[in-house]
Amino acid sequence: MSGGWNTIESDAGVFTYLIEKLGVKDVQFDELITLEPDELRQLGDIYGVIFLFKYPTGEKPSDVPKDGTFDHDAANDIFFAAQTIQNACGTQAILSVLLNKDGEVDIGNELRGFKTFSSEFPPDLRGETLSNSDLIREVHNSFARSSPFIDETTRAATEDDDVYHFIAYTSINSTLYELDGLQPAPINHGPCTVSEFPEKIIPVLQRRIARYPATEIRFNLLACVRDPRIRARELGDQEKLEEEEHKRTEWLWENALRRHNFVGFVGELLKGVVRDKLAQGEGAYEKWIEEAKGRTRRRAQQGQ
């Protein structure tokens, strides 16, 4: 049994560089701010979307989905894997899109080999194979936030936790599928060509969001698209190319910060502050502590 999986953020930069480390070429993720077909179309060639939402704890599996219909035959004809391990759903949703776009997308030798190896397996065994892939797990974990206090690979979620879940939507064989490893089969949402995807996916997402109270706003939607830098170069759009290159630079910096453990830095910073207060003379350190206690008490009183 391989090691555990950490949680990763629903972030375009995280997802983009994760798939590149897995060997996927010329694919990018972009965050969608509105549920508008035009916003999707403006992104160019779209391979699918990844949707993040708060998972309703205590919800029991059903023989009939709340929207669409289960397609058990498709579970063996397309790449669909059951989710068999905690925290892997982000990467599993990504692969649910990309491994069903092999031919349209260069998924690289490693993922192509994984797909070929697992293609004859049933969904539950595919899920086990994915969960036990050292390569996929190590790349996934390399994009997790550094946490010196909690080992998420061994900690199980409890009923008190807010649990979030990733699922994928994509057009396969002119059908709109919802691919959720916690469901028994792919969910068929009706006919949908690749060109129709921007129009067909929006009402499906709207119906899912409508199941939640109006106060629930914690959703995130990422589109899996052809690297927009390619089109910018083809069109000679230097402004767009520079914009995308700047975005990539920012993503690299943000990903580096995610992986860095700042506990040591904060500890050294506090030591420096204490040394400075002690060097100011007798009583300066004690005065600083008392002032801090006073500010804390005032904030507590204001919050009551």
Lay out the secondary structure:
Blueprint: H1 12-21, E1 27-31, H2 37-41, E2 46-54, E3 69-70, H3 74-77, H4 89-98, H5 108-118, H6 123-131, H7 134-141, E4 164-172, E5 175-179, E6 187-191, H8 197-209, E7 220-226, H9 228-235, H10 238-259, H11 263-279, H12 284-303
Antiparallel strand pairs: 1-7, 2-4, 2-7, 3-6, 4-5, 5-6
Helix pairs in contact: 1-10, 9-10
Would you write up a description of this structure?
- Keywords: Hydrolase, Protease, Thiol protease, Ubl conjugation pathway.
- There is one protein chain.
- By secondary structure, this protein is of the alpha+beta class.
- The protein folds into two domains: 248 residues, Ubiquitin C-terminal Hydrolase UCH-l3 (3-Layer(aba) Sandwich); 41 residues, no CATH class.
- A seven-stranded antiparallel sheet has the order 1-7-2-4-5-6-3, with helices on both faces.
- A hairpin with a 2-residue loop joins β4 and β5.
- The longest helix is centred in the C-terminal third of the chain and has 22 residues.
- It starts with 11 loop residues before the first helix and ends with a helix.
- About 5% of the residues have low confidence.
Summary, kept brief:
GO terms for molecular function: cysteine-type deubiquitinase activity. With 304 residues, the protein is α+β, with helices and mostly antiparallel strands.
Instruction: Return the CATH architecture of the largest domain.
Output: 3-Layer(aba) Sandwich
Shape: globular
Strand tally? 7
Question: Which topology of the largest domain does CATH recognise?
Answer: Ubiquitin C-terminal Hydrolase UCH-l3
Major sheet characteristics: 7 strands, antiparallel
